[in-house]
Amino acid sequence: MARFRMYPTAVQQAVLLEHCAHARYVWNLALEQWSMWTRGRRPAPGYLEQARQLTEARATFSWLRAGSQTAQQQALRDFDQAVRNFRAGTHGRPTWRRAGRHEGFRIVGAQALRVLTHNRKWGAVNVPKVGWVRIRLSRAVPEAKSYRVTRDAAGRWHLAFAVVPRPIQAPDNGKIVGVDRGVIVSAALSTGELLSCSGPSDAERGRLKHLQRRLLRCRRGSGRRLRVKAAMAKLYARLADRRRDWVEKTTTDLARRFDLIRVEDLRIPAMVRRPRPKPDPERPGQFLPNRRRAKAGLNRGIMANCWGVLVRRLDDKAPGRIERVNPAFTSQACSACGHCAPENRESQAVFRCAACGRRAHADVNAAANIAAGRAVSARREMPVPVSPKREPQLATSA
């Protein structure tokens, strides 16, 4: 998806926000109709019936008729596709769209081709009932049949064309690399490289803490609270752009340098799940400590290092060249001799094999195991000592 930054005027922003509100209103109405269906009742109306209802609503309400019919009908098409994806099991259940969080609409058909290029840096796109809106040309404008206009929490407008980028061609050098994802080191390669996703600076941390304290002192619904939240949104948007830039550059570099990329097969949604409460059997209604705050810090570290986005972008740029390896014992096994024991991992960053004495960075050693694919047969080739309580007992003949 090719995305460009938009620079609308104040008047154009007001019209764009109305288009977003209309698309969100139509989506929520369609979701309400679909959610009211129960067993024994007639099925919820499909896209054709909802499109007919939209035509009647536009003829009745002038405020809805003032918006773009293309954007409103496309919201119905998007909802119909979301329902199809949910029933196919590929996506989750469609959810409600909220103002301030889901600001956007889609334009399809011949109207999506109305794009002009003024020079190497600036262009314009003709949005229905808005006019020509300036866009920043950070790359060549693709030919697409649709585009989506969105507004993020920081108030920035973007234009995204629905095109599938071409995958990066393999270098055909036979090189294989293993990628170990971590919290301290974002990505460690089997070549010895340590890649870190840049986080907030000390000044940004101080600024964020100051804004959070100001937010606590603001009254709900006040203008000052809105300004503080806007300042926080700009700071979070800057950090998100920084992480996205690191992911794009890192994945492009890996896809260009190596023929085969092996990563750990991690179930990230299960890893970032909050711990369950532990009821206290001695005190009904009370709970035991479950290290919730420590787990929340670990979850923030996992999300901040973009574990899932990194692999997803590798799949997009190097399809068919990504292998997922079982992560079992990759951090405990020695990449030189194969000895696997928990005491090999001295600390978070130090690995020292108890058998051969080899010392290395723990994440680089794990990346070497991933590159070799040894974790796939870890239980067979690198057995872990069994606890005495779980030793299998030999059956004795009577």
Structure description:
With 398 residues, this protein is of the alpha+beta class. The chain folds into two domains: 2-161, no CATH class; 176-276 and 291-325, no CATH class. Helix content is 40%, strand content 17%. It has eleven helices and 16 strands. A seven-stranded antiparallel beta sheet has the order 2-6-7-1-5-4-3. It has a five-stranded mixed beta sheet with strand order 10-9-8-11-14. Strand 6 and strand 7 (157-161) form a beta hairpin. Helix 1 (10-35) packs across helix 4. Residues 376-398 have low confidence and may be disordered.
Explain the layout of strands and helices.
Blueprint: E1 2-7, H1 10-35, H2 47-60, H3 62-65, H4 69-88, E2 103-108, E3 115-117, E4 122-127, E5 131-136, E6 146-151, E7 157-161, E8 176-181, E9 187-189, E10 194-195, H5 202-217, H6 223-257, E11 260-264, H7 268-271, E12 278-279, E13 287-288, H8 292-304, H9 307-317, E14 322-325, E15 350-352, E16 359-361, H10 362-372, H11 378-381
Parallel strand pairs: 8-11, 11-14
Antiparallel strand pairs: 1-5, 1-7, 2-6, 3-4, 4-5, 6-7, 8-9, 9-10, 12-13, 15-16
Helix pairs in contact: 1-4, 2-4, 5-6, 6-9
Mean pLDDT reading? 88
Number of helices: 11
The count of β-strands is 16
N- and C-termini, Cα separation:
71 Å
Unreliable stretches, pLDDT < 50, 5 or more residues?
A: 376-398
**Secondary-structure element series:** EHHHHEEEEEEEEEHHEHEEHHEEEHH
> What is the approximate shape?
globular
Strand content: 15-25%
Structural class of the secondary elements?
alpha+beta
The helix fraction, in percent, is 25-40%
The total domain count is 2
Radius of gyration: 27 Å
Sheet with most strands: strand arrangement: 2-6-7-1-5-4-3
